[in-house]
Amino acid sequence: MKKETRGFITILTGLYPFQDCIHFLAAVRKFHEEPIIILIDQVPKVLYPFLKTFKNVILKPAPANENTVLASRQAKLALYAASEFDKTIYLDSDICLLSDLNDVFEYLDEYDLLLTEDVQPSIVKATNLLRGKQEDILPNVLQILQSIGFPLQADSVQYNSGLIAFRKTEVNKVFFDEFKRYFEIVKNNQDKLLLKDQGAFASAIASVSPKMKILPPTYNYLSKWEEAYNIQDKIKVLHCTYPYRPQYAKNITRSLYTRVFDRFAKVFLPNQVTNPWRKK
Predict the structure, then answer these.
(1) Of 49, 161, 175, 238, which has the fewest CB atoms closer than 10 Å, so is most exposed?
(2) Could you tell me the domains of the chain?
(3) DSSP 3-state assignment of 82?
């Protein structure tokens, strides 16, 4: 019987997240030996060896786009096709593991898809997806999303796609096809929508209904929104850029290599704090 394969995948589009990605690789390697695929775009090849220093890293071209925001979004749509594994855990490259994720791989024996809810899970309050002042658009969020063709209802949930665990199944193939189709709607309605993927992701879930497990926020803890959480369990996955990462998390990836690299980053890489990508 063929042994099931498993691995990780992340996205690196442009130089602003490069330092994040180095520490992402260091954090994964702290707890896991599985292969890590990086979907990469707009990064000079001269910098590839910094990524390949970590064992079993596979670089694959992300869908190319001059707009690094759009390139990142389109790479997420391509996760299913890009994965070489029976079981895959996708993580944003600004994530730091604080423990292993073996349990997530094991959950994929039973579920097609594992993910976490957004800090603001109610789709009717998802003003973060729309253009305009929050107070003006809040009463009409669902109406606007439905008007452009999203199959969402008042009880629909907004998920945070910074962590997506999936297995190779026909259901998931259809899910990612639908995800791509609904994201085309986002692209075609830029007068109303910001270039974000959560609405398309929620629509694909509503359309396909894969067998899902919702993980608690400890698996995708956004430190920027710490006041919104009420958790007692140990955080397993910390989601924040390296400059804003608490010291205990920085210690996870601290090594001679990352210390030398961080000095290099200060001189040769653009400042993440002023990254226009994060303002889109």
Answers:
(1) 49
(2) 6-118+160-170+211-279 (3.90.550.10)
(3) helix
Distance CA 32, CA 16 (A): 25
Single out the residue of 71, 69, 6, 17 nearest to residue 47, CA to CA. Answer: 17
Confidence of residue 2 (pLDDT cuts 50, 70, 90): confident
Which residue from 20, 41, 10 is spatially nearest to 258, judged by alpha carbons? 20
Q: What is the mean pLDDT of the chain?
A: 94
In this structure, the strands spanning 87-91 and 221-222 are unpaired
Residue 1, Cβ neighbours under 10 Å: how many? Answer: 3
Which structure tokens are listed for 163?
Answer: 């962590």
Q: Which two tokens stand for residue 214?
A: 């919702």
Angle 41-165-175 (CA atoms, 0-180°, nearest 5)? 80
Q: Are strands 157-167 and 87-91 parallel, antiparallel or unpaired?
A: antiparallel
